[in-house]
Design a protein that fits this description.
This protein has 15 helices and 11 strands.
Length: 389
């Protein structure tokens, strides 16, 4: 047992388990099983299902579905796309049992999977209401106008979207888009004294804005996703549409900024934005029309354990400059901080026991997500869960 390590059962504060309405991609049972295999026993599920989780009725339905899942504690974000949803949120907050299952509110500054972009007026109203009710507000930060302008310019030059490969997705949702939306979100959080959490931060500009806001004592936290930590725009060559997500992959220099943000404490959480799609949906001729999203809940821990052991799992790219990343960082970023930020009330027990020296190769057909693929196919990692105590 001397070579084994123990961690609390991990928390993934950003997943899309697809139920209800999209169960052909994944469902609560299949994706919870994948989570457990990756040492994750608590997840925070996003609202862009079908129907979206933006009413008391749809929220109650998700809670009822989750009550049948015994191997994972599934909490839910409430989605806001119009003012009427805020009235529903206020009703939900009067129901103590439902309130316990809600980890926060999600707003989209631009469209992503599920088309839940909200107007500026609704977003501002959401910040105001969340501040009054003391609810964490999670923001998908991409500026709609900057994205639209970038897309229009690229398509105008190309003439035909079919002529463009998936790598243009990163140019159509540029770094400046994320930075502008983060700046707007921080300004709203400051104005209304709201608790803001930036989802899947992917840029150096974004890291700097959060760092500066924290120095000014703004109540802001942020997460980075595993795919932005381990993949870059260089991976489009081998992965194609399997590397398409929102926000998109960034350059190696942006990737380095995320690891720097972990090192200096700017980054509060690592999450996966686990978002299964079928291979049939992904592998289309018009690459820019492929849906955005990748899996990750089962592979987060071994990827991070490999870094903590001093290795680097990517088979072709070089390891970024990562001065210090230890098992204690995994505990902090994947348990302690999300537990505190989203007021989940999770104890240290149960604990997972891991053999950090056991090597294995990631293979999509051996993972548990219903979609059956992974962007990390063939990667050598270390760390296998031995037991849950």
């Amino acid at each position: 047992m001397s070579n084994k390590i123990s961690l609390p059962a991990l928390i993934d504060c950003h997943v899309h388990f697809r139920e209800p309405g999209l169960e052909y991609k994944g469902d609560m049972q299949s994706e919870s099983t994948a989570a457990n295999a990756g040492g994750v026993f608590t997840v925070c599920d996003m609202p862009n299902t079908n129907p979206p989780t933006s009413s008391v009725e749809t929220f109650r339905d998700k809670v009822a579905r989750a009550s049948k899942i015994k191997n994972c504690d599934i909490r839910f974000f409430f989605g806001i796309t119009e003012s009427s949803h805020l009235e529903e949120l206020k009703k939900l907050w009067e129901d103590e049992e439902l309130k316990k299952r809600c980890c926060g509110v999600k707003v989209f500054f631009d469209h992503s999977t599920g088309d839940q972009k909200a107007s500026k007026d609704v977003i501002e109203e959401a910040f105001k209401v969340c501040a009054e009710l003391r609810i964490p507000i999670v923001a998908h930060c991409e500026d709609a106008q900057i994205n639209e302008d970038a897309r229009h310019m690229i398509l105008a030059k190309a003439g035909d979207s079919n002529a463009l490969d998936v790598s243009f997705h990163s140019l159509m949702r540029p770094c400046a888009s994320e930075a502008k939306a983060i700046e707007d979100a921080i300004n709203l959080a400051t104005r209304y004294s709201a608790q803001l959490h930036i989802a899947h931060l992917s840029t150096a500009l974004g890291i700097n804005l959060v760092r500066e806001a924290k120095e000014k004592n703004v109540n802001v936290t942020c997460e980075v996703s595993t795919h932005h930590l381990f993949l870059t725009t260089d991976d489009y060559k081998t992965l194609g549409t399997l590397a398409k997500m929102n926000p998109p992959l960034r350059t190696p220099s942006e990737q380095q900024a995320l690891w720097d943000g972990i090192a200096d404490g700017t980054v509060d959480c690592i999450a996966t934005d686990h978002a299964p799609h079928t291979l049939e949906e992904k592998q289309v001729d018009d690459q820019l029309s492929a849906p955005s999203g990748v899996t990750g809940v089962e592979t987060m821990l071994p990827l991070l354990l490999t870094v903590a052991s001093g290795g680097w799992p990517h088979p072709t790219s070089s390891r970024p400059n990562i001065p210090i990343f230890q098992y204690s960082n995994i505990r902090k970023l994947c348990f302690e901080n999300p537990n505190k930020i989203f007021q989940l009330g999770k104890p240290d027990e149960p604990r997972i026991t891991i053999d950090p020296q056991k090597e294995w190769v990631i293979s999509g057909d051996k993972l548990h997500s219903k979609c059956g693929w992974t962007p990390y196919e063939g990667w050598k990692v270390v760390g296998k869960i031995d037991d849950v105590l």
